[in-house]
Amino acid sequence: MTVIGSNLSSLRASNASSKAQSALSTAMERLSTGKRINSAKDDAAGLAISSSMTSQIRGMNQSIRNANDGVALVQTADGALSEVSNMLQRVRELTIQAKSGTYGADDRKNIQSEVTALTSQIKDVLDKTEFNGVKLFDKSGVAANSRNLTIQVGANASDTVQVTIDSLDGSKLDSTGLNVEGTPDAANALKTSKEAQVAAQNTYNTNVQTLNDAKTALAIAVAKGQADTTIEQGAVDAANEAIDGTDADNPGSKALLDAANLTLSAAQRSADTSAATAAETTLTNVDNLLDTVNSVRANLGATQNRMESVVANLTTNVTNLTDARSRIEDADFSEESTALAKAQILSQASTAMLAQANQSQQGVMKLLG
């Protein structure tokens, strides 16, 4: 049947041309963007899945950076505690040195000067160590005051690692807790006794010299045949009295020197005992502090290892998830190049056939001729 009202061939060719143009446009878009999914109409389910994967990938990438920051924080804390441990070891070494009986009060005083300087530096390290403005240590010794830092190490809210830095007991970081010199009272008593003994010794030496001078003068007078030696003899007697004294109420310089020596010996023994007790206390305090520091460092080391494992795991997950997302949303250039060539051929063919279909209706004119 020959009709002119409906050119079905033209309609079919036009429809085929539209489809070919759509396929050509899609192929060109995918090749130009490198994406198989450029809008929801390309693959609605695939778009939703790839978007969810993108959230996970970006969250995990940020978590890798977070974990690395956490590792840096832990390393900062561990480095500070390493130096604190070194200083405590030096304090312990000095305490062992001061505890030896071969060292006197002056030696222990000099040793205490270094101990005091190290104590101040330990406190400075614990007070001033920070990471990005966050203080890392607490010296109260109260567990509730320990530093607890939450590191986000995953794409989901529950993916966290807790970094705990236990509170250190800093109450012993003073001249009492770390002391090798002894109590101030014992030290002051020894100082006073030394000053008194020196003064008594000087007085005794002066009196002895006076006696010797008086005896010399008397001997000279006798040798010259001086008839009256009362003055010279009186000087000798006075010098002897100054040394030996006259009675219990008026002791001589010799008795005062003996008493000063006894007092000095007692003060020395007291100072030695006080220093030994202080050194023992210091050793105990240092050992306790070292145990605490070592425990904190062990926890920090375990936490660092955990976060490094987290980084390794997240890196693997990101790689695998990125690969999965790529298979969903990225264009296969081999496939799309083939589709482009096919669409170009179909577009050209459908255009040619549309022209042929439009020409075919003109044969009707011959029937009217």
Q: Quick gist of this model?
A:
By secondary structure, this protein is mainly alpha-helical. The protein contains 8 helices and 6 strands; from the N terminus they run αααββββααββααα. It has 3 domains: 8-34 and 332-367; 47-182 and 282-322, f41 fragment of flagellin, N-terminal domain (Up-down Bundle), CATH 1.20.1330; 184-278, no CATH class.
Textual characterization of the structure:
The chain has 369 residues and is mainly α. It has 3 domains: 8-34 and 332-367; 47-182 and 282-322, Up-down Bundle (f41 fragment of flagellin, N-terminal domain), CATH 1.20.1330.10; 184-278, no CATH class. It is 73% helix and 6% strand. It has 8 helices and 6 strands. It has helices at 8-33, 44-99, 105-128, 184-223, 230-244, 253-329, 333-360, 364-368; strands at 130-131, 134-135, 147-152, 160-165, 245-247, 250-251. It has a two-stranded antiparallel sheet. A two-stranded antiparallel ribbon has the order 3-4. Helix 2 (44-99) runs antiparallel to helix 6 (253-329) and helix 4 packs antiparallel against helix 6 (253-329). The longest helix has 77 residues, at 253-329. The radius of gyration is 50 Å and the shape is rod-shaped. The two termini are 18 Å apart.
Keywords:
single chain, 369 residues, mainly alpha, two-stranded antiparallel ribbon
Looking at how many chains there are and whether they match, the oligomeric state comes to: single chain
Q: Please, what is the average pLDDT?
A: 86
CATH topological fold name of the largest domain: f41 fragment of flagellin, N-terminal domain
How many individual helices? 8
Give me the secondary-structure category. Answer: mainly alpha
**What sort of overall outline do the alpha carbons produce when their principal axes are compared?**
rod-shaped
Order of helices and strands: HHHEEEEHHEEHHH
**What helical percentage do the residues reach?**
over 70%
Strand tally is: 6
Number of domains: 3
CATH superfamily of the largest domain: f41 fragment of flagellin, N-terminal domain
The neighbouring-strand order within the major sheet is: 1-2
Q: What are the low-pLDDT stretches, counting only 5+ consecutive residues below 50? A: none
Q: At CATH's second level, what is the architecture of the largest domain? A: Up-down Bundle
Rg, alpha carbons: 50 Å
Distance between the termini: 18 Å
Quick one: CATH class of the largest domain? Mainly Alpha
Estimated share of beta-strand residues: 5-15%
